[in-house]
Design a protein that fits this description.
The chain is mainly beta and 199 residues long. It has one domain: Galactose-binding domain-like (Jelly Rolls), CATH 2.60.120. It is built from 2 helices and 12 strands, in the order H-E-E-E-E-E-H-E-E-E-E-E-E-E. The protein has a 6-stranded antiparallel sheet, with no helix packed on it. A 4-stranded antiparallel sheet has the order 1-12-7-10, with no helix packed on it. Strand 2 and strand 3 form a beta hairpin. The longest helix has 19 residues. The structure holds calcium ion (2 copies). One calcium ion (CA) binds next to loops.
Length: 199
């Protein structure tokens, strides 16, 4: 009887062991994506923090360096360069995006890719991250084409679980031109990952 029990246990063990190899490894390295946030009509804009209004999808130039999934937005569908030149405050229009990283997320890694016509400065949770182009509304004299290429910044150290706010100051250069030969726009994509190893 004892031998029969042992034989059954041995048979079951032999059945289970090969199947263990089919289970996914718990140590497999992975970098799950937690969140993607893009510019869209839930982006808000304001004049230096007052009267937040929704940004709108705007006319986009075919040569603008665009970003997958993200919309070009601005304070109006078509730019009025002369009106903007007269009315834009020093430092440009302020654009905001609020997003929430799930509480309990650990080892968060984040990047943002963005582009503006003509120039921008980027802040995450009020911390300055970087920029592209001159924030002077008269623009540079060098004929810079910063609007052609998106920039990517790592924002890991500025992120936190819970509510986060990205602020982008953006400005259109020069008073001359029509809405299509001197357009304005902003586009961005925030990507948040949860890493398995902290570097
Ligand atoms: Ca750029
Ligand atoms: Ca422009």
């Amino acid at each position: 009887m004892k031998h029969r029990k042992l034989a059954i246990i041995l048979a079951m063990t032999l059945l289970i062991i090969p199947n263990l190899a089919l289970l996914p490894s718990v140590n497999a390295k992975k970098t799950p994506k937690v969140l993607t946030v893009v510019s869209d009509d839930s982006t808000e804009w304001s004049v230096q923090g007052t009267n937040h209004d929704p940004a709108v999808e705007c006319w986009s130039h075919p040569e603008w360096g665009s970003i997958d999934e993200a919309t070009w937005v601005w304070i109006s569908e078509e730019t009025d360069p002369a009106w903007e030149y007269e009315n834009v405050p020093d430092g440009g229009w302020y654009f905001y995006k609020i997003f929430h990283i799930p509480i309990g997320s650990k080892k968060i890694i984040g990047t943002i890719t963005l582009n503006a016509d003509n120039a921008f400065e980027l802040y995450v949770n009020d911390e300055y991250i970087g920029g592209d182009g001159s924030m002077n509304k008269d623009g540079p004299d060098s004929g810079e084409c910063e609007w052609k290429t998106p920039e990517t910044f790592e924002i890991t150290e500025s992120l936190k679980p819970g509510k986060n706010i990205v602020t982008i100051r953006a400005i259109n250069h020069h008073s001359h031109g029509s809405s299509t030969d001197n357009p304005a726009g902003l586009t961005f994509k925030i990507s948040i990952f949860e890493a398995t190893e902290w570097k």
